[in-house]
Design brief:
The protein has helices at 9-14, 88-103; strands spanning 2-6, 25-30, 35-41, 48-54, 58-65, 70-76, 79-86. The chain is α+β, with helices and mostly antiparallel strands and 113 residues long. It has a 4-stranded antiparallel sheet with strand order 1-2-3-4, covered by helices on one side. Strands 5-6-7 form a 3-stranded antiparallel sheet. A hairpin with a 6-residue loop joins strand 3 and strand 4 (48-54).
Length: 113
């Protein structure tokens, strides 16, 4: 399953990140490929910065809700990812998808020898 969303324009403006309206954060959760990809266009508007995390298990999900919008911080083995000013519904949906992925046991466990 693939789920994509980006920062909400009203949340960016209301939370003091109005300068990011032109280049919001984008997040893609792909449970088939087991990747989390975060993209953000750089300030020059020429290229994009991208962070991709491969995951088997999600270690923690933190949602910081604001009056309008929410920030989400995801920790997996090997790194962390943060996306700012999502809508609250999108943040909850991402949390639901990742927790369901963990609960179904679709990810493989890591054995330390």
């Amino acid at each position: 399953m693939k789920y994509e969303t980006s920062s909400a324009k009203d949340a960016l403006i209301f939370n003091g990140k109005g300068s990011h309206v032109v280049n919001p954060w984008h997040i893609t959760i792909d449970t088939d490929e087991e990747t989390i990809t975060i993209r953000k266009r750089n300030w020059h508007l020429i290229g994009s910065d991208e962070q991709t995390l491969a995951f088997k298990r999600v270690r923690s999900i933190s949602i910081d809700e604001h009056f309008i919008g929410a920030d989400i911080h995801i920790k997996v083995v090997g790194g962390t990812a943060s996306v700012f000013c999502l809508s609250k519904g999108d943040a909850r949906k991402i949390k639901e998808i990742l927790l369901e992925f963990n609960a179904n046991g679709t990810g493989t466990t890591i054995n330390v020898v």
